[in-house]
Design a protein that fits this description.
By secondary structure, the protein is of the alpha/beta class. Helix 1 runs parallel beside helix 9. The radius of gyration is 18 Å and the shape is globular.
């Protein structure tokens, strides 16, 4: 019996227009009636995810910032913080590459330099609690993740060089051709899934997960029923329980309906 369903957002639950099918509204209440927990598992900011799922955000779960922040509704359950010295090293490294701009993702919100104000429309796609500031030097917040945007849209060309210069305690995870995230090595969506499984006494074979990119890899590995979207990268398809319809074909909605009918 399925007790928990987790889905990535961009490229998975959301279509190419960053929207989800309104039919999910009725499906969500059916999930709740059957006591199936619904989890948004994303690299996106927690506040953005919470806003996206109003008015029923308080009745669901969030694995945000690629597993660095976990919440039940508005209640924080877990937060994974990057050491300040590692944040400083990443800031220095990324500042040397003109084609990149970075967002420091903290508990209270996200922080972007005012010199990168021209990218605000891109920032708004993934963040709702953010501030443009003059300098990163005086942020009073715990940093969980550093998101990096490549204005040339060729993130794969530089990721290995950046990884080789990072402290060994942190890692790089890509999400498409424009974004990469730097966070603690032990933080990932699979850790978030494992955390929820432990505190709610749910087994992997009672869980479903959906994904499309490499930041979903550990998430799909942590459940028995890991579904890859038709638009997923090949390594995600390789480990999937099944490859389903694409995000634009509402593959997640289709599969949830199947689960509810089988249940």
């Amino acid at each position: 019996m399925i007790k928990l369903i987790a889905t990535d957002m961009d490229g998975t639950f959301l279509d190419s227009q960053k929207k989800f099918d309104p039919e999910f509204l009725s499906l969500f209440y059916k999930l709740k009636e059957k006591n199936i927990k619904f989890v948004a598992a994303s690299g996106n900011q927690y506040y953005r995810l919470y806003q996206k799922f109003l008015p029923f955000s308080e009745h669901m779960y969030f694995i945000a910032e690629n597993g660095s922040y976990i919440a039940e509704g508005a209640t924080e359950l877990y937060c994974n913080i990057i050491f300040k010295e590692h944040v400083e090293k990443v800031k220095h490294l990324i500042s040397q590459i003109p084609s990149l701009f970075m967002i420091l993702c903290g508990r209270k919100g996200a922080y972007i330099l005012k010199r990168d104000l021209q990218y605000q429309n891109e920032v708004k796609k993934y963040y709702c609690a953010y501030t443009f500031i003059d300098s990163f030097d005086y942020i009073d917040d715990d940093i969980m993740k550093i998101a990096i945007y490549d204005t040339h849209h060729h993130i794969q060309n530089i990721i290995h060089d950046i990884q080789s210069q990072l402290p060994p305690e942190v890692k790089v995870v890509t999400s498409g051709n424009e974004w990469m995230d730097i966070q603690n090595k032990e933080a990932h969506k699979g850790l978030g899934m494992q955390f929820l499984q432990a505190i709610y006494d749910i087994e992997p074979d009672e869980c479903v997960a959906f994904g499309d990119q490499m930041n979903d890899y550990e998430l799909l590995q942590q459940v028995k029923y890991g579904y890859a979207m038709a638009n997923a990268v090949q390594p995600i398809k390789d480990i999937a329980y099944e490859v389903i319809a694409s995000n634009d074909e509402q593959g997640v909605i289709q599969k949830i309906k199947e689960i509810l009918n089988e249940g």
